[in-house]
User: What shape does this take?
Amino acid sequence: MNKVLLIVPTRSRSKASLDFYKSFIENSSITDLMFAIDEDDADNYPRIDGVLYEVNPRMGMNGTLNYVALKYLKDYDYIVFMGDDHRIRTKDWDVTLSSSIGNKGLAYGNDLFQKENLPTSVMISSNIISAIGYMAPPNQKHLYLDDFWLLLGKKLDAIYYHPDVIIEHMHYTLGKSEVDELYSEVNDPSMYSADQVAFSDYINNQFELDLEKIKKI
Assistant: This one.
């Protein structure tokens, strides 16, 4: 069976990590779970047997995601991103998603919020990440990553949405979690503005080059 690595960047949410783990262990079949945490926050996280941990200087969610994905992609066929505010609700979600994308594609489930509109969590074939050198454009810190994954998958004609695979997004705007300092930081208007500019710059200057790299796989 193909190997899957699920990376969950997390900060200041040790309780959320335990809740996430519970939903993971109940529903996963072929996946290793890794919490990627910041070194100044590492002591706040209990270590769970069987879970992998990456501790690094704070790089922001996307910086951490890219660093860890590149470090481990040679050991796995698929890399998955989920936030610490996602919860896996469907048994064998990983088998279903990986079976649909083969060796060059992306897949996502139903987050009960954006649904088909955006992959707020995503599974990506490792060779795509290897070809372009990142899981999401590195100049983006936190936002518009899902816009990138959706556009990339559509342009490759290799993105697969599974409405029956529930990966619930417990976002504070839905009343499913409390507003905390991290939510306030990453949803600040200045963050939206900066990441929107970075995403636009990527689309205008790098996106087509990345597509060509992937098509050579």
Summary: The domain at 4-215 is CATH 3.90.550.10 (Spore Coat Polysaccharide Biosynthesis Protein SpsA; Chain A). The mean pLDDT is 94. The first helix runs from residue 14 to 27. The two ends are 21 Å apart (CA to CA).
